[in-house]
Amino acid sequence: MKKYLGLIFLMYIQTQSISAQQKDSLLTLSFKNTDVLSVIHLIEEQTDYHFYFIDSWLKEYNDVSGDYKNESIINVLNGLFENTIINFFIIENDKIILTPNSIIYDKVPDGFFGRDSIVTYTENTIGKTKSSSSVFANAKKSKKNKIETIRIGKANADNTKQKFVLSGYVKNRQTGNPLSNIFINLNGVAVATNSKGFYETELNTGLNILEVKVLAMENVRKRIIMYNDGQYDIILNEGIEQLDEVVLQTKTYNNVDEVVTKTKIDVKESKNIPLALGERDVLKVATSLPGITTAGEGALGYNVRGGKSDQNLILLDDAVIYNPQHFFGIFSALNPFALGDVNIYKNNIPAAYGGRLSSVFDLTTKDASVEEFKGEASIGPVTGNVLLETPIIKGKSGLMVGGRVAYANWILDALDEESLKNSEASFYDIIAKYNHRFSENSKIEATAYISRDDFSITSDSLYVYNNRALSLKWNYRFNDKHAAKLSLSNSRYDFDIEFDGDTNTDFDIGYSIDEKDIKLQLKYLYNDNIKFDYGVSSKLYTVNPGSIQPTGTESIITPLRLDEERGLESAIFLASEIDITKNFTLDTGIRYSVFNALGKATQNVFQEGVPRSLETIRETISYDENEVIKTYGGPELRISGRYLLNEDLSIKASYNKTYQFINTLSNNTTVSPIDTWKLSDLNIKPQSSQQYSLGVYKNMRERAYELSLEGFYKFSKNILDFKTGAEILLNENIETEVLQGKGRAYGVEFLLKKQKGKLYGWLGYTYSRSFIQLESEFREEQVNRGDFFPSNFDKPHDFSMVLNYKFTKRFSLATNFVYQTGRPVTFPIGSFRFDGADFSVFSERNKFRIPDYYRLDLGFNIEGNHKLNKLSHSFWTISIYNVLGRNNPFSVFFVTEDGKVKGLQSSIFSIPVPSITYNFKF
User: Any idea where the TonB-dependent receptor plug domain is (predicted)?
Assistant: First the structure.
């Protein structure tokens, strides 16, 4: 009791001193955008007041302003410390004591002497406060529990609340990334972070204990003293534990649980799959999965569920990549070290995507490190690759720069074939990304990508093609339920052919396509059972269809430049994911797309009732700059549903309708880098497609195995094809050479994937058919009498096996086996002689097939030792591509020699191709 009487007496004296001081103290002060410490010094210079504090309490308050005339010291200090955690107390007329968070009381709190109101906080009395909001923490320090004390908020003598709100984010200190689904123990009650790493809870006034225990992270234990509402971010360090094996599982990418099924490619695991010349290629890995294939070895582009290669939307950080491959498809044009996530949509394309019929390859780059400088590199027989990351503003922003280059000319020089001695083949690609986080709610990402290929297989021609992609994304979170992403992008693709021969026909051919895109996408979490995804997008196409210019003073080539094409494609979309019941979830979406073909341009109008030709042009219409030539569009419905039979078994169904307003012009069997893109206009209609799918998905043995079986049927209209012998390149009247018809594809896809154990990998099998029908009332515009016939990429059977066996943590053996039915071709079936010349008679289009394709690859992977204190961590890959030496045909063609038609076959790799690649990270 003597202790309390002494305290009361001291407070009484202090109260009298303050009262006397307040009557006489009137100050005139003015300060702007200065620090609190400077204002305190100013007050001390102009008055007799002296402040007592620790400098570190005031360091963060360096931008305060005020203008006071004849104000009391109390009013000045209240204004000065209004937005801080600092309280003040005046004693002995001229001494001002500052305290962080807490208050020095000038009177005893109500009920101070009551049994239930004496508040002495210890860990054993947490949560037992009954009547007073005043905070008196036990001064005794426990030697056994030396934990850091965190003070939250600023005490207010008028505040009688018994509970205050504590909120904040949980982050990884090394990466700066938020940690979702982390449980925080607060006074024995678990509080979870949301998908953004945010948490919020109510705590009692005074002392509370916070604990966080997360696998692979250091444990955190803090003493939290609540004075008022406030924020505390929990920063976790990565912990090092010696474990035999750690397997982290989450339902985020559970193939059974997902409503919109997507194919995910593990970028890191792709390094273990043996590919041509040891080059890592995530898109080549995609072709080993069901439903995704190519027209042949070395062919550009991908065929997804019986669709043409131009029906795939390939995005890199939201910017379109028109040609994602180097050197006729042998190498990927995308740096694997820079990629973070690779998602492929092929059964149900979300409503946020549009403009292509078959699939979306959504590739995103990883964020640059904001904490430390690091890098990754590889050296192979024909390519070198390096990627560097560095912080710009530590903890907030980082820059990533990567580049690849090919040095394959030494291989061509070493070949015995004399005709290839002067050949060259080289490429490079460069990628850069800058990411900056302004706050927990705001982040920008800027990505730039360029690539270039130069190749000359003959001594008189040089082929050059380039990609460019630029994107800027701003992600903003309004609150825990509402977020937005605004993206701007620009993509360009062009090629150039230079011919310098022995005759006077030297020329330079050029082509380019450019698109500018803007897209606003918003996501809204209405509640735990309903989510919305909505937005708008628009893109402007500018196409230079081609030009030819003579080179040299003696060239007789006539200059020609086709009219520029322009088009505006816009869309609005809305999608929702609704949990109808615990087991049944429906994802519905609608996208309304509109395409306007724009002038300046001229368009031909043809006579009705006769085939299109130069002779049947009725008139030519000229359109002014930005005048609308033709408008196409309509609704695109996207629906998918998932029903859980149990937690490891589900049934999924989907329906998908899409429009495509741009086509490639090529009458080759396989895609080449000099194919041109053509916009829909007055005479060429947009393609459209409807796809139905139904599948069963199963997980077994705690997700050690994934099993899926899915069937699909797709019907398309206005599929672009060409008349036999059509002239495509630099044709001013291309509509006279094209045909548009119906497409039909169907199939069944099977996938068995093993994800755990020393042996892991997958088996994939697809049975699918792809047909096209080009019928017309005019015989000249019919192909195969107007019947359905196999498309150029129709391959009924496609089997792949990718397996990896880990002998130890450092050594593993990888295998890759592929079998495919040979693609369709058109063969000569006879010949005749007319006017002294021999002519071939060909079969119906795509009636025959080239030989079946199969290939076995082997790779041996050697990891460096796993010591922590190393300058770099290495990884060796020794591989043999086409171990069996199978002479798989790339194409079959025919020549006439001595009056006889001879069939010839070209192959890319007809012998085993060994390679060794060294990778290292630092």
Answer: 268-356
